[in-house]
Amino acid sequence: MFEINRIDHIGLIVDEFEPVVKLFELLLGFRVGSPLVRSGYIGVDMEIPGTKGISIEILKSDKSPISKKSSLINKKAAIHHVGLHIKNLPLAINFVNELYMEALEDERSDQFVPFEAKLRSDSEGQFFHIAPGWKYDSDFYYEIFDGASLHLPNYFLDNVARGIGIKKLNAWAHVSNDDVSLSDWYERLFGLETVYYWNPSPVDYGFSVRTLKFLENEMNVEILKPLKADSYMQKFLDEFGCSVHHISFEVENIDSVSQICDQFRIEVLGLHSGVGEKGKWHECFIAPPQIRGLLIHFFSWEIQ
Ligand SMILES: [Fe+2]
Fold it and tell me: Do 73 and 112 share a domain, yes or no?
């Protein structure tokens, strides 16, 4: 498996830059970090309250001729990639190529092309892209690199005073109909561990959840699988493909989420509560119109 140093960033593609930066800053309590200029797009790193080493890159196409050809502006969903900083890129490339050959040994389809990791370069060094899943049918990807980052986000904890009261980033959740094979991919490539599986009756709920945990980073990936054709998860999959449905933040207090969202005229969805191992939990979602497709999930614990 890869030796992951840190989850470096989540890359978000937006249509309008300023409103999204303002939303992250004022509503979510993020800090504006370093500006980014890459071929075909411009952006800024936003620092996340209570979350070490990870930032959210907000990127916008610069509408140059290069960007028109790039996949960035063709994606429907907002989350474009997740950047992982690993220990040794050449070793990882060998590992991934061998693993794909081994995992796909039984593939007999003429149309199927095995994954081939290709190194690319930019101002931060070399990297490669890999889409989650054995069959490369995903609509977001992981950006794997081992160079020196130009910047690392500052770690800050003034979570109660700023915005909605975010304590930390907890997970990103993506949708797929192939959750078993996808968890196998995460386990074998990234060494993630499946820590939770919720598979309710399709009569009661429209999707199942598998939670996988990064071993040395306090972060989770969730795989959401639609359980029926008319569920909203299936509709999301039809519209946006196998891409990130939401990012999840733990907050101090769910009531202040509702109050602050009201001030920003952002509708709070799916507010409900339950009981878990740490006590009572509360959750809700927002789907800010400034960010296409992506939902933001908030949860809080009432510790007993
Ligand atoms: Fe990136």
Answer: yes
